[in-house]
Amino acid sequence: MIAVIQKFGKLGRSGQDTLIVMTGVALTFALSSEFDLAEHVTAWLLTYEYAQLDEVPLTLFVFVLFSAWFSQRRIREIHAEIERRQLTEAQLLSSQQLYKTLFDGDLTGNVVLDTNGNIGMHNRAFDRICRPQNSERNARKLFDFDWPEFVTQLQHHREINFNKLHICRPDSLPCYVGARFVYVPAEKNNSAQIHGYLVDMTEQCLVELDLERTLKENRVLARHAMQVQEQERKYIASEIHDETGQYLTAIRMDALALQKSTPAQANVIAVRIASNTQHVQQSIRVLIKHLRPPALDSLGLIGAVERLVNDWQKLNPKVECHLQLDTSDRVLHEDINIVAFRVVQEALTNITRHAQASEIWVDIHIVTRQGASLLQIEIRDNGLGMDTTQSTEGVGLVGMRERIESQQGSFKLMSGLQAGTMITGLIPLQEEQRKKLPRTSLSPSASGVNDYATS
To answer: How would CATH label the architecture of 109-200?
Structure first.
């Protein structure tokens, strides 16, 4: 008996109900067989023949059959309804999954806020663009405007667009977005919401800022170039007037006096004319050297740079210079020679003015990148360095960059406060014939290099 009860307890609800029905049917049959209940009922019904009660059993039997048929149809309908609901739930789940995939996969940063700026829901793009703090789920500090005033305006206009909105990211990295905010009024059980849609425009804005900075630098450089041109003209005019002009006047006067002089005087005048002519020649040489370094034509780039650095070190004897110069016996184009020479010259000038360095390195050699030959120029010092994030009013760096980029090259500056400075220039070389020339010997103090910069 105990085993039957335990087994009965383990059955489910439907099994228990089936067992109860079967037990009741079996018990009824047993009692009817024992006490002849059917005969007693039939005899009792015959006493009420006028009421046709003897037809009740057949009627009840038919009623039971129809009840079973009715129950079977209802069961089928219930199963169909269950299947329909399961299909609907599956479709709803699939729709939710698709919505979540589209919402999270959208490149636009989407966010749902309340009127206090609390973040209710957002996608991964919003996280990537704004990087909100996990510990603080409020977006008011992200946006660069007065939040209460913004909410008031949004409630009035229903929608506000920003072409360029600065995002105050917690990591302090620059971030600019195009944004649209839509106000959704409160409904029944839902409070008012603000839907935000952000498009990342940081790269575009940084390029615009860089172009604006470059344009400003180019204007400064153009103004400086005109000033330098006028200074050069003034210098040349002064040299010609003060040096060459007066000696030529003296030569002209001696030539006129020579016509009326005696043989003894002619000898003295001739010596004077020769001396004045020598002074004129020396002045012209100084002027030519000022306009263009003659060592470039006679010694080439390597020799000219070596002489430039040696002359510079004579003026700065406390600075140790290291040179590493090698162009692999290649004859470079004249434009590349003058650009490389002027870059080194300007870098040395900047080191003298600003670096306070004890060592400098100058490295010029040919490298190969992606199958193309390039002339690499590196100038480095161990001086004070500079903050590259701050703009400078000088034109030395801008001039070097413009010279290198005029040859379709690239210019790079690396520096930090108390960390020295390095400039690197890469200039593509044209295909020219190699000539076997003896390599320029390196000076004893020569070795390697890199950069500096700022005027």
So the answer is: 2-Layer Sandwich (3.30)
